[in-house]
Amino acid sequence: MNILFLTILNLTDIAERGLYTDLMRKFRDEGHRVHIICPSERRHKKKTSLKIDHGISVLHINTLNLQKTNIVEKGIGTLMLGRQFLKGAIKYYQDTKFDLVLYSTPPITFTKVVRFFKKRDGAKSYLLLKDIFPQNAVDLGLIKKNSLIHRFFEKKERKMYEISDHIGCMSPANADFVISHNKHINPGIVEVNPNSVEVIATAGVSVADKEKVKREYKIPEKAALFIYGGNLGKPQGIDFLISILESNIKNKDVYFLIVGSGTEFSKLQTWYTLNSPENSKLIANLPKNKYDDLLKCCDVGLIFLDKRFTIPNFPSRILSYMEYRMPILAATDLNTDMGKIIMENSFGLWCQSGDLEAFNYNLSQLCGAKDNWKTMGNNGFEYLRSHYSVNNSYQTIIRHFDNV
Prior knowledge:
- The protein is an alpha/beta fold.
- It has two domains: 2-198 and 389-401, Rossmann fold, CATH 3.40.50; 207-387, Glycogen Phosphorylase B (Rossmann fold, 3-Layer(aba) Sandwich), CATH 3.40.50.2000.
- The chain is 40% helix and 20% strand.
- The chain is built from 15 helices and 14 strands.
- The chain has an eight-stranded mixed sheet with strand order 3-4-2-1-5-6-7-8, with helices on both faces.
- Helix 1 (19-29) packs across helix 15 and helix 2 packs parallel to helix 3 (111-121).
- The N and C termini lie close together (7 Å).
- The model has no long low-confidence stretch (mean pLDDT 94).
């Protein structure tokens, strides 16, 4: 099949591991002809261009800045994205007949592109739902419920669901939420298609390599390393993370590594500057290879979600923890089923975000059960391999289109 994938992420290297690059390589390896349209933000100062990257056609569309920019430029850029993608697709893929259009959220502004190829080529459509907007913004107080802007984006969300032949959701709770809050769509098109990766059985890191990495980042050699890696923004409930760091500032049994970037990074940076904790370090966003080298040396992976969420999120960063066979310590809202999955399959501990006593209890439980870390990590890896493999995601999608 000729497959078109639309994404807001700037995919600069198809060989690099990631949710979407892994999936696109899988489609390529199964004999499909894959075409990707993605942004090249104006900060990179590059014109719209088409290239072949590891056998996959990648069209980079020059856009406004969409990530790590002010809300005005991000909003305008996101609204313009669908029209810009469509213009580029018509110009560069005018002679290509697409059989399947894949697209992910965010954003919710690809409807015009999808509709065009459904009409022109008779293409089928599959939405990889990674973000439920605008409800997530309402939950965090960024958009007022029933305001003009809320209703505007709800209309766009509704149109995106209606144009989709199938909707793949990150978890059972996520799928149930979509069905119960969108009576206008056929429940039969909604299914579970989790975040997935190409699962690789990684070799354990040597003692010498672990010591080398710890020296590089000035981490105590015998410290039990608890790492959070990823976005540091409103969705993560950074105030609760700071309260955890404060309450454990004299805890010599743990060492917290916070790695990432985002709108709340400066708030964390200010706290670190004022408190100079000896058992914690804040590291700005690292290149993936450097982050992976650091991750290999860590013991426990941390997950945080703001307690106000009514939508069931499922952060993809858990996958790298599971791949490196690390127990998970999570603090989330009550609506996600991530905690349930972690606990029922014995690869970590969970509590409600905002409950400091419960979090610190789980922290002490993990620190007192280091002999179980290997078993918990192996449980997580096996769950990853059986449930979150890119092979599963591919089969979930392709079974709908065997006759295309």
